[in-house]
Amino acid sequence: MARNPTESNDELNYLVLRYLLESGFTNAAFAFGYESRINRTPVEEDLIPSGTLVAIVQKGLLYKELQEKLGNGNSNLMTKDINEIQQMIKEKKEKIKKEREKENNNKCESKRERQDTDREQEKDKKMKKSNEEEKEKEMEQREHQDKDIAKDHEHMTKAKLSEDGVSGVMGCGTRKASVQFECS
């Protein structure tokens, strides 16, 4: 059963008048009542509880906020059935939940990638360190080989000299078996 728009306006005017009276604005209530001619309309005051206007405005604000949060600027929630609104809310919650899960998965993947990168960098550092250690060992081995070669060469030289008839260590200026060594 559709309401007459005049009746709705009269009820709303009465709610405003009653709010003004309850809030202590008696002069404003008198002026509003006189201008809106509220005294000429039959309103059952006993059926309207105190604070009704505030409750209606609060509900309207809640619907407006809900409508904005759902992102349905074109749909009017006031005309929808409660089941439709609940379904819209459920769908919106599921969408938000999926987005959060996706975001969390992305964070986990990023964290794993960082950990993998850190592990690879640590492996690279260890490899570089072990390569450097191997190079140092090779250098030491070469030095030892060079020293061994030098000792072997010295021993061979001494052995060859002794075969030629030169014995012992020779100093500067010593002559034996027609071999002369000079000091430098």
From TrEMBL:
Residues 93-163 have a biased composition (Basic and acidic residues). It holds the Pfam family LisH. One of its GO terms (biological process) is regulation of transcription by RNA polymerase II. GO terms for molecular function: transcription corepressor activity. Keywords: Nucleus, Repeat, WD repeat. GO terms for cellular component: histone deacetylase complex. The keyword Calcium does not apply. Its main location: nucleus. It is found in: Nucleus. This is WD40 repeat-containing protein HOS15 isoform X1. It comes from Elaeis guineensis var. tenera (Oil palm).
